Prior knowledge:
The radius of gyration is 19 Å and the shape is globular. The protein has helices at about 30-45, 80-100, 115-120, 150-155, 160-165, 175-180, 190-205, 205-220, 225-240, 245-255; strands spanning about 5-10, 15-20, 50-55, 60, 105, 110, 125-130, 130-135, 170, 185. By secondary structure, it is of the alpha/beta class. It starts with 5 loop residues before the first strand and ends in a 10-residue tail after the last helix. The chain has two domains: about 5-205, 2-enoyl-CoA Hydratase, Chain A, domain 1, CATH 3.90.226.10; about 205-255, Lyase 2-enoyl-coa Hydratase, Chain  A, domain 2. The strands form two sheets. It has a six-stranded mixed beta sheet with strand order 1-2-3-5-7-10, sandwiched between helices. Strands 4-6-8-9 form a four-stranded mixed beta sheet.
Amino acid sequence: MSESYIKTETHDGYRTVILNRPEVLNAFNETMHLQLQSTIDDCESDKTCRAIVLTGAGRGFCAGQDLSDRDPVLMGDSPDLGLGLEKLYNPLIRRIRSLPLPVICAVNGVAAGAGANIALACDIVLAAKSAKFIQAFSKIALIPDAGGTFWLTRRLGEVRAKALAMTAQPLEAELAAQWGLIWQAVDDDQLMNETAVLAQRLAANSSRANALTKQAIHSALTNSLDEQLDVERDLQRQAGRSGDYKEGVQAFLEKRAAVFNRE
Ligand code: LHQ
């Protein structure tokens, strides 16, 4: 049986998924990718799981691809790095983005290479103040992947995207938050507490509204205003027809906390 490179903790309403190869700062090998895929599948099929927290074991969040598994000396004359992206990283990024559950990333330490960009694919990113985001690719003559060119350019603009990608300069969590690359930088010893509060809050929302909100905001990244107004109309129609809307309004009028459907 292969080692367990992913750990999970089940909490009331959400699960914490922990990248677990701390001796290599949770760098990804193929087994870890496959274990993460199946863990995400489990989270999605568990109706009591209404949000996911992704974090790392030990002092790092994730150092990207395990480079000892992609040693060009062992890969022959013409290594195909696109294959690993096509088979493993791109499906992971697409899965996180299309998952109808909110994914919170708690960046507990350094996030480098694809590790940084997997964090940035998550819906809400909290980071310990000591954490750094490093687009390490230029150091090994590669380009940012796992969505890196997309997240950096959309969130920071061309100027900062190019400088971070070409210099591989570590970006401190507080500056990442100031620049709008992530949601918040928090004191190291508060990271998991603050993450738990956020996860509980999202888990208490209407799951349907969480999923539709995620979908609408993703559409806005590429739509015109006209197109987006149509998306909002259509998704709001769906939201309004759910029992959750009825419960939300009733709870408001009765001055009590809403209790949403868990189906
Ligand atoms: C590692 C790694 C690592 C193996 C630390 N691999 N062992 C996709 C598709 C196909 C191919 C290529 O890539 C991709 C996507 C990518 O992600 S490419 C980018 C890959 N990642 C990197 O280039 C980052 C490499 N790591 C680093 O630059 C440093 O380790 C950082 C800046 C992350 C942390 O530095 P330190 O805090 O000084 O830690 P360290 O370097 O001492 O690392 C601790 C251990 O982890 C060390 O092992 P050791 O046996 O000496 O204790 C490292 O060798 C190991 N490690 N990253 N990616």
